[in-house]
Please model this.
Amino acid sequence: MSTPRTGHRAGASEPHHNDDFVAVPYLRQGQLISLIHWSNVGGEWKYTTILAEYLHRDEESWYLVINGQRARLDRSEWAIFN
Model:
């Protein structure tokens, strides 16, 4: 298993997010997408994936529908999962 990337800012004028470093498919409103979240539990890396309906995104957040409910997830914690 590879270690996850950390989302840090390269510089004040150039914000970057986890998915800025990988090929992100063209995202359309209503499209189903998978997102992944990594966490360190007891010194071991674990991941969680979700399948959600894509609404849109901005610099900080993913806007989605998960299990019929609107949701906003932090882009610094959740990355596109191909």
